[in-house]
Amino acid sequence: MSNKSVKSLLYRVVTIGFFVTLVVFVLLTLMHRTAPVKGYPVTIRWIVHPDSVLMQADSIVVPVVYQGNPDFSQVKGSERKQRFIHLMLPSILMAQEKMKQERSRLEQIFLKIEQGIGSREDSTELKLVLKCYKCRSMDQLLENIHPHPVSIVLAQAAIETGWGTSRFFREAKNVYGMWSYNSSEKRIKAFEGREGKSIYLRKYDNLHDSVYDYFYTVSRSHAYKDFRKARRETQDPFVLIKHLLNYSEIREEYVEILRKVIKQNELTKFDNYQLAKINEDDPIWKSL
Question: pTM here?
Answer without folding.
Answer: 0.85
